[in-house]
Amino acid sequence: MKILCIGEMLIDFTPVKGMDNSYTANPGGAPANVAVSAARNEIEAGFLGKLGNDDFGRLLVNTLKKDKVEILVPDLTDEATTTLAFVTLDESGDRSFTFARKPGADMLLSEDDVAKVDFSKWDLVHAGSVSQSGLPERDAVLTALKKARELGKIVSFDINYRDKIWSFEDCKRESEKIFPLADLLKISDEELDFVGGEDNIPSFMSENDITVIVLTLGGDGARIYFRNNGKVQQANIPAMKVKVVDTTGAGDAYWGGFLSSLLRQGVKNTKDITMEILETAGRYGAVSGGLCVEKPGGIPALPTLKEIERAKA
After folding, report:
1. Where in the chain are the domains?
2. What is the pLDDT of residues 152-192, one digit of tens each?
3. Domain at 2-312, CATH class
4. Which residues have CB under 8 Å from 153's CB, separation 6+?
5. CA distances from residue 260 to 229, 234, 264, 268 in whole angstroms, order as listed
6. Contact assessment for residue 134 and residue 107, using Cβ atoms and an 8 Å cutoff
7. With a threshold of 0.85, does the pTM exceed it?
8. Measuring CA to CA, which residue among 233, 242, 245 is closest to residue 286?
């Protein structure tokens, strides 16, 4: 059971409660969050992304090593600094971001880096749209996902749109190159325009040969769409009732738990997937995401397998 995550890893500067204009540096970045979430769920995980040769880059390397995530690009780059994101939280704990990324080291992942990776050893390969916002990373990730698909690996994609990084139109154009490669697609209720609205999801799945779409709805839980033999089934999964402190990384905690549950249930390709398996994974992901929002910070808040199992009991 092995998950490879491709894309950005960065520093989230998270507000310190009770101290105006004060921030704590936390490791984050959506694909890296999913990799660490999988590792804490005792799934072998790898991270394919570029980090800067600076103090923050070394902090992120140590973070991955601590959670035993395999680092596929061990050499730090001098061509750009590690990407920084400043997080703003509203009264309900919802976050918004401001990025220092002009460019960031994550954007420098190259096709040469991808060529060194043995994709045959990974069961599932995951990426997100932020990796498509700049070159050479855009081409590198597209090449990686094509390789994974050709090898029959499960491909996962998270739209994860960030309006401070690029426009909706640009994100949609580049994501449309990825959709036909994806078996599993994660979207939020704020990203429904990417698929033509919720009513269009069944047609969108058929057009792009997508097996599963998971629509996350924040405190209202998630809705799973499963295309099987040309028909689309759906199931609603409630959210875990918790006191929200910080939603940073919540979607990644959900998705890391969801993907880990799929693999633990024996899913090796899309033919192994059933609605029962998806509902089990959805409930597991909901607990993982619920536990995450009870704590501040991205990666520091991601729960372990034992914590999730304890909360489920």
Report:
1. 2-312
2. 999 999 999 999 999 999 999 999 999 999 999 999 999 99
3. alpha beta
4. 119, 122, 123, 124, 125
5. 25, 20, 6, 12
6. yes
7. yes
8. 242
